[in-house]
Description:
alpha+beta
Amino acid sequence: xxxxxxxxxxxxxxxxxxxxxxxxxxxxxxxxxxxxxxxxxxxxxxxxxxxxxxxxxxxxxxxxxxxxxxxxxxxxxxxxxxxxxxxxxxxxxxxxxxxxxxxxxxxxxxxxxxxxxxxxxxxxxxxxxxxxxxxxxxxxxxxxxxxxxxxxxxxxxxxxxxxxxxxxxxxxxxxxxxxxxxxxxxxxxxxxxxxxxxxxxxxxxxxxxxxxxxxxxxxxxxxxxxxxxxxxxxxxxxxxxxxxxxxxxxxxxxxxxxxxxxxxxxxxxxxxxxxxxxxxxxxxxxxxxxxxxxxxxxxxxxxxxxxxxxxxxxxxxxxxxxxxxxxxxxxxxxxxx
Length: 337
């Protein structure tokens, strides 16, 4: 009898252990599933193409070479640094120290020493001693628009968006641009430049959704009165700050050192991943129909934007880490720190 009781007790403990083990396994599996799902969600957030930030940049004012018109000049610090007059009429945004007589050997130093028209929302960045700009002294310029009546449109605002970009690139691989990176992106460079014309609202973020290949008339008294263009820069680089191929440099290429990613990511000859920069340029007019670029070219074929990198040291890395790699769409509100 004692043997049977002993055997019965042993079997009861075995059942209890089995039930306990089953419970542990069930709970463990559930926790593991939650962990995997959470990790998947985090990974998806980190790789969201929209993660990043943007700033609103007003036109550069009071250019001493052309005091009668704000933020304009017939010069190009990338294509022909130090030459004036040169080429066609440009509208400048961002760095206020941009000028035709700036030294080709000290452009970035000069830009960093000056001010900027680029701003975060409400002009704030509490984590940086340079609150309005957050350390961005980069320069952006575009051709002016000559309207059908022969007058110039002038510049209203440029929005500069720095994003995670292509789904084929890993956010964790994104690096800051090298100091003094120069890019001249043209409508004819690639279909991936995604040049579109539309009408935008006062702050430049909203648009009427009517995307066309040429500027057209916007409703002057409506919600979207400003003629606006959009263009996307490449985000894969070879590490150079400008075109080094002599043949391409002579034809003012200034873009072959960067390329667009493919479905497989950045190519082996341009393996460095940068933030995807795209800009929207708002002209100070609602009358776009029949307008030509200041070069005399068709806006549907030769619209272009120049970019000269001049972020203060460490700040571009800070925003990449705090927005793109953190999986956050910071929009126009900078992260703290």
